[in-house]
Predict the structure.
Amino acid sequence: MPEVKFIADGMLGSLARWLRLIGYDTEYFSGKDKYFLAYRARNEKRIVLTRDRNFVIHNSSISILIESENLKAQLKEIKVKAGLSFDRERFFTLCSVCNFPLVQRNVSDIIANVPEYVAKTQKNFSQCEKCGRIYWQATHWTRMLEFIKSICDED
């Protein structure tokens, strides 16, 4: 089965970021041109995530209507409507900012780019090769993981 890829419209920026954190290739489309959004989705074989009912009516084969305004409920909607499994092996493998795959790094690789305390207290680092953003498993990582687990546990 081909890997599912998404493109979230301008109303769903937080959802796009969280899908990336869960490990799903999700582009964010902030433009206004819905024709270009549909074109891009078809060209890149992506599913459009939108709250725009009209768009879904005219592009039902390439879109999913997101009905909730609540992030947790939106993630549950996509999980059901797209038939996704949230696999822990995928979590935190994509840059939450630019959607590019993350690469594991040693502390020696990134020491000049993180606070001294982080370099001393953390062991696992990853970095986006596109934007350079560095990630590590601190308390925010634990909270995000608990949030993701809560979506899975409520099924």
Remarks:
- The beta strands are 6-8, 26-28, 47-50, 63-65, 102-105, 125-128, 134-136.
- The mean pLDDT is 92.
- Residues 102-153 form one domain.
- Residues 139-153 form the longest helix (15 residues).
